[in-house]
Amino acid sequence: MTDAPVRRPAVRDHVALGIAMMLLGDFLFSANDAMGKWLVATYTVGQVLLIRSGAALLVMAPMIHRAGWRILIPTERPWTQVSRVALSIVELIAFYAAAVHLPIADVMTFYLAGPIYVAALSPWLLGERVGWRRWTAIAVGFVGVLIALKPSPETLSAPALISIFGSFAFALIVIQSRQLRNTPDLTLVFWQTAGAFAAGLVIAPFSWVPPTPRDWGLLAALGVVAMVAHLCINRALKLAPAAVVAPFQYTLLIWALVFGWTVFGDVPKTDMLIGGVIIVGAGLFIFERQKKVAPEAAETSVQDVV
């Protein structure tokens, strides 16, 4: 009696699962951001960084043990590694500081402009050639940012500027991640998380608010949920081509609108919605062009944007 042939999953099954993992990861990131916004209304940014990052480091410990502790020694571009960690600390502080005062959808709109900043800076920092089509999309994307920001003495608030500053720092992190392609993801995530933990250790004691037992769990969940979201995104990129799953990263804005409305009662402004649509459209076009002229860079950018 012969064994029945083993059925191999079809490629389209892998792609469908990859899309599902990307959608799940984006949902978890959005839920994490909403929970973070809720917590920083009571606790300081330093506390959030400390407890969130400490929990994430605990989750990573078994992974590091399996991979070997030597993986934590970065050998590629040491100063770029240090700069990336510093930028990640600045970006996290800016995100939470802005989220205290702005609707989560507003903050996410500004952050989704990150790929536009990356494309604009890539000729100088990455030596990439940017053609006229992408320069046009970059200009359109900046128009979207201006529409969302609606600059005037009344609307140009400090939280909005902090959010834009954070999104610019995020774009620099993406660029430096491209420069560190040969460094394992686990190494990058560990030092990024360890840097945030160290920053929390320094900042938190100056204005410590004793958390309730429930909030201890929620603060720790920030780090755990973020780690699970990263795992979902990484798995999505292994199951399906980056070109297929990349557009789904913009569901982050949809979830931000949903959480903002249902949890915080934030009704999105018309100019923010218009600006968000323009930013998303410009970002998608830039990615499509990047996919054609530099597939490797496009695939790397997806991992960092989400």
TrEMBL record:
The keyword Secreted does not apply. The lineage of its organism: Bacteria, Pseudomonadati, Pseudomonadota, Alphaproteobacteria, Hyphomicrobiales. Residues 17-148, 161-286 form the EamA domain. The chain crosses the membrane at residues 15-32, 38-64, 110-127, 134-150, 156-175, 187-210, 216-233, 240-264, 270-287. Keywords: Membrane, Transmembrane, Transmembrane helix. One of its GO terms (cellular component) is membrane. The keyword Lyase does not apply. InterPro entries: EamA_dom, EmrE-like. This is Drug/metabolite transporter (DMT)-like permease. It comes from Oharaeibacter diazotrophicus. It comes from the Bacteria.
